[in-house]
């Protein structure tokens, strides 16, 4: 390959050297850490202050004696939980077996080399993110030390245990993210190779196998850690360890979700826009942005969801544990509910694995000889089968565990409430498909509107789909929560305070009961997306004597056209089911947040006995908090999109300057690494600014007034729910509208295709950056806010009200600085303190038509080349399926979509 000299670089166009960037990041991180430490050190109580001053309830949580619980047949509760540990080990073993099986699947070396390159680059990205996470964790550890040591008065041993579990929580999110990219990068090349046989069954099974491996490992590891806390730590410290663990995993999920979402969409937009600029095909190996796009598929669609799912499952459990210990008075009932909670979780883990095996057996029987199949069908069947089995087992296990605890039908009441959430786990994906599936009328409306209206009407139709989806999904969630509320009124108030709040938490618990399957169908998407890219990047069709080699070594007669068509169709199914998981996770965050907010209310009102009048619109701070939450949600949305926009601008500029289409078959490794560095740089810059903004905002509002903070938490949950659903499903509609044009209409390279590409690039940060990051941000704010508000209340109880308000002002100024920097520090044309690049001057109307730009690099492809001029060195097979060399004169009309 001929080496091409890089064009001249301006400081505001290309990142500086890696060493300079590292030094700058270290200085910024050190200064921010020092600032936060100094500020939080001011929270320390003065010498002589009583450590027994008023503090939050969670520090005093004591677990009941779990061995006192006896299920039907005399089985001790502790024995049941120990069996849960066995289930967790089996789940981890399931994931390891799946990983080994994927690794042994046949794959051609050209495809394996591409997937190995993707994994290697992902690994470097994760290592950078891991170092960054440790810096962010230092902020949280400082707050934990100040609160538990100085104000609560824990001895250093207990404080160390709490800090250790916060680190374990963060490490857990990080570990499952790493496992996810390892599994997916095995599966993507194996899926691409399996497509060459022309049979759809393995193209469907391999991504689902990888997804189930991730889902089972994720849930098993989460449940294992929580059971260890429950069973083996002293009851007096376990409650605080649960909080520390949840905060740590929320930190890991928030940072990885935000950074991964920014990274993947910078790369995706940079790669997609080249299709319009240079008339090249999808995943062209000569495009240096494609490797970054593949890495981003894992960073954003695998790393982020894996960490997010791990955190969501854990935080929901911690919220329910906290409620049980604060809201239920009888220790015997507390113990019974805790044992029931974890036994049901373990049984649902088994149910998910069994459902997958049964569904896989049925799919193999049904499609063993098929030449075409609906790739969404096995995923839909798996979701509904798991939901039905989990519901049935919930009633059986609840009767087995809870019948001795209470004789008033508690077992069936709680089972019915959980089943509302389990039903939601299957119903919500069906509603999402109405707005995002390639077969839905909304998505086809996006395509139809693009025919004459181009990108403008494409975008407007996508916005319509997103808004309608927020309405219908919101109403569905409200209906299911209403059902749970109705059941909670059937005598649960005799056992606990605020039974409706517990019911809402159990709905979230039911959402996640089929967690392995929810994660599996979500992880299906990045594998199918990468499989397409691996196929193109391998340039397997151009290899000399490749067909003879495949027949000799793999007993395979390659079906090139069929393989590419199946990979595209399967990618559409992956897009749909990626979209289905997002509302489930955000819905869980919001519904589960109500339970954690209740814990804060219990601490502030001393068990609902004082200051209840402040939880009212008549209390102005509470009302102001309700209004404030929306502002923060909209800032976060804008800041995350701004980071993507600026990074994508930089990536596009670099790719346009360096891409070579003549005389080469692949972009150079150096060019691809440079695009990855651009994505990483802006992902970390954006993530740091936004995380610190959320961090200081939480501290500021918690210190202002506790009931103002409760209103704020309620507000961000509600605003975040609808903002996330709207953005996720609008983005999904735009994405699959493009897929319809590429697959069903075979209209690549047409103006219609260009319009859908523009819509898709608008939807990219909607669905994969802003919407998905709201979930961990809401949970992190609620969990960290639990410590922050108790810190403020404790200081006020020690007569430090003036200091509390002073710190609130300081934290507010820090948060405003982060908000300001999230735009003005990320503007296009700036990398730091440089002046923004001047706008181009208006053309002279009298000067005649503008001349086409010239280039002193004759080998570079020209963005102004005729649309119908194929490049001379188009890869072998490019005229088979991609539609670039033979663009249809007229795009065929869409068939009517089936009614949904």
TrEMBL record:
Classification via InterPro entries: PPase-energised_H-pump (IPR004131)
Residues the UniProt record annotates as site (Determinant of potassium independence): 578
A Pfam family the protein falls into: H_PPase
Cofactor: Mg(2+)
EC number: 7.1.3.1
Cell compartments where the protein resides: Cell membrane; Endomembrane system
Acidic residues compositional bias, start-end: 880-893
Topology class, membrane: Multi-pass membrane protein
Protein's UniProt keywords contain Ribosomal protein: no
Top-level taxon of the source organism: Bacteria
Bias (Low complexity): 846-875
Similarity field: Belongs to the H(+)-translocating pyrophosphatase (TC 3.A.10) family. K(+)-insensitive subfamily.
Subunit description: Homodimer.
Annotated protein name in UniProt: K(+)-insensitive pyrophosphate-energized proton pump
Gene that this sequence comes from: hppA
